Amino acid sequence: MRLIKSFQRSMFLLFTLVVIALSYGFYLAISHIVVEQSRIHHQSVAPVFSLINDELMYPLHVSQTLAHSKTLKELMDAKVIDRGAITDFLGGLEKNLGLSFFAASENSLQQYNSDGSSFELTPGKVEWYFKLSATEGNFFAKLGQREDVHLYLDLKVFNDKKEFLGFVGIGKSLRQFWQTFKNHKQVFGYDLMFVNNKSEILLSSDENLLASGNRLVHLQELPWYQQVEDLAVRGESLNSSVIHIEKEEFLLSEIYIDLLDWKLYLLSPLKSRKADITRSFVINVMIIFALIVLLFILGHFLIRYFADHFQSSLHRDAMTGLANRDLIEQRYEKIMAAGDALSVIMVDIDHFKNINDSFGHNTGDQVIKQVSDLLKHSVREHDLVGRWGGEEFILLLPGANLSLALAIAERVRILLAALKIEHVEQQISVTASFGVTYSELDIELKKVVEVADKALYQAKEQGRNKVCSLLNIN
């Protein structure tokens, strides 16, 4: 019963470990996938902010600083504009900062460029100047120059009296932007496009979407836009939308650039992302599988352990741990099947009833246990000691002839006679009678035991504490 309860506790513990291991394994798998998704997303988006800063924010901040330059304001506020001084000033900035600058003067209606050139701001010819001068706001991002389209960042300039002096700004060719974005795509694998508040695509890594002197491409013209048009109509963000372009999936990311009132769209192919996430998933599944295999192996050995102990307990005497009759008969049959001869010794504790009557059954049980221990340690390793019933024991000695069996029985008899069992304040002496027989015949165990019993009876008849033998099995 104790073994069954131990088995139940162990199996419950194993089941609990399996549940915990699987739960933790799935938790790790999901966590790793989420982390992997976040890592991939961060890896793809983070460089974009650096790109925006380098290509747009930095020129914009430089333009803002230039619009507040005291030197430039003095040059533009002069009644007579010193063309050389302005172009030298702008040329120095270009040399130091690597950007192309211009200044459009209200006083002279001239535009001065950092490359040293200049031209007149003629109404009807240079439309942007007069159009933006009349427009509210101090900052404008626009495209210009039909032959080689540039992005211009224009800022109005005012003197200390808040009088309008003209524009300063930076111009950069769209081809330069495209080359930078193209290089960025080769490294990070996604397309990008900058769209203004009119849904016009101003900058892009796709050469086919670059503005020309004739027209700007609108976002609504793109084939995939229909897939997200409902979201756009409802004014919802297109961020994290999945779209299909030529049977391939892309993740659409949307970033709002507040200073420019633009939106940046990233088109990231999901094929590579799926490969990374799949790899992470496979690794975690393998970890979970390894946990399951380890737990299965643990369970297998645990079940085998208890199965062996169950099997052993079924064939063992509960009190002494010696072989019971079932195991004795199984071992005897194996010896016979192997064709081995054997000797059998029957052992009976002398006057055992008197021990129970005089000292109690607990003491009687103690005597049986100590006799059992002595028998187990007095025979050969391959011999079998079993409890036949009550105070009677049996020894199977495979391969032992009668002489050897008699010698073993005599040695055990002497050891038993010398055994002293402590009881309260006195010692109990124990003796036993032995019946020995030998057989080379393949016959039933009960017939061999009958002969050994007859020899045992003779030992008792001769006064007990004796060893007798008998060979007349037939």
UniProtKB/TrEMBL annotation:
Q: Which organism is it from?
A: Thalassomonas haliotis
Which EC number(s) does the record attach to this protein? 2.7.7.65
InterPro entries tied to this protein: Diguanylate_Cyclase, GGDEF_dom, Nucleotide_cyclase, Rev_trsase/Diguanyl_cyclase
Q: Where are the transmembrane segments?
A: 12-35, 281-303
KW Transmembrane helix (keyword) present: yes
| Record field: catalytic activity | 2 GTP = 3',3'-c-di-GMP + 2 diphosphate
Q: Which PANTHER family match?
A: DIGUANYLATE CYCLASE DGCM-RELATED, REGULATORY COMPONENTS OF SENSORY TRANSDUCTION SYSTEM
Q: Which residues form the GGDEF domain?
A: 340-472
User: Which Pfam families does the annotation name?
Assistant: GGDEF
Protein name (database record): diguanylate cyclase
Q: This protein's superkingdom?
A: Bacteria
Q: EC top class, in one word?
A: transferase
Q: Which UniProt keywords apply?
A: Membrane, Transmembrane, Transmembrane helix
